[in-house]
Design goal:
The chain is an alpha+beta fold. Helices cover about 25% and strands about 35% of the residues. Strands 2-1-5-6-9-10 form a 6-stranded antiparallel beta sheet. It has a 4-stranded antiparallel beta sheet with strand order 3-4-8-7. α3 (about 100-115) crosses α4 (about 120-125).
């Protein structure tokens, strides 16, 4: 296990750049969800940043801003190996030019990941297309993580208490 409590192979998968879906909820517990357009894992998994489109993710951005709650699923398309991390103190900022290398690396990784399941790179580029000025960075420290890989261990808590 790493310092965050994540197994090294799952942390490496998250850091590599795989499919990322983010969710939150409002005060009435109504959910919001959106595909992230990029991600960055730092400090051994203690700091995670995902990027979403402000225009396409209005409700998710509003919910995270209002509650701080975020649940993020990282999933490897070719194997369905999946981990979910949650936090209660996520912070938002507008993406800027310093984020461009992160977004470019994520795109290259996702092109590779999606090719593994038979889809051409141009489809990935269309799926992750964005304008930098539209992106919101959501940064958080995971407080709890679950193995969500389909199978008998799905839902097993990897570390933390309920977030």
């Amino acid at each position: 296990m790493t310092a965050t409590g994540l197994p090294p192979d799952l942390l490496a998968m998250m850091a590599r750049g795989v499919s990322v879906i983010a969710g939150s909820r409002d005060a009435a517990m109504r959910p919001s969800i959106m595909r992230a357009l990029g991600s960055k894992v730092e400090d051994g998994g203690h700091k995670v940043t995902i990027f979403v489109s402000r225009r396409q993710s209005r409700q998710l951005v509003q919910d995270v801003a209002a509650t701080g709650y975020v649940a993020v699923v990282f999933s490897e398309p070719s194997s369905h190996r999946t981990v979910q991390v949650k936090a209660r103190r996520a912070v938002l900022r507008t993406a800027d030019t310093a984020d461009e290398p992160v977004l470019a690396r994520y795109l290259v990784s996702m092109e590779h990941e999606i090719q593994q399941v038979g889809f051409a790179p141009h489809l990935t580029r269309a799926m992750l297309a964005h304008k930098l000025e539209d992106l919101v960075a959501i940064t958080f420290e995971p407080e709890v993580a679950y193995d969500q890989t389909p199978g008998p261990k799905a839902g097993t808590r990897l570390f933390g208490s309920s977030a």
